[in-house]
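Amino acid chain:
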Amino acid sequence: MKWLWVLMAAFALTASAADVSGTWKGSAETQNGTIERTFVFKADGNKLTGETTSNMFGKSTIEGGKVDGDNLSFHLTVNMGGQEARVDYKGNVVDANTIKFQVEVQDLGQTLELIVKRVP
């Protein structure tokens, strides 16, 4: 009986994860100009995978992705002028078509806000 409750709790957590699978686009202003980024997310339970493309940094793979209810987190490795940099994303699903991210470039100590919209 104890295992049944554990399984039911695990299913409830998985079922409550936001449905973010699909394509999302957004842009943000930085010191170096406007960054436009497209995400293609695939959520499988609490695991988030996919890839992203940026006008400044090209294509990157989503690493360490997690979905916890309406919260998302993952990181990317991007090439910045010949140097690799880690970029951390922490986001919150605002509604079915909007995600608001806090983006931190660890190596540069920069943080910015990025709002992305679902592409129909």
In short: The chain has one domain: 2-118. The two ends are 44 Å apart (CA to CA). Confidence is low (pLDDT under 50) at residues 3-15. The beta strands are 22-30, 33-44, 47-54, 58-61, 63-68, 71-80, 83-95, 98-105, 110-118.
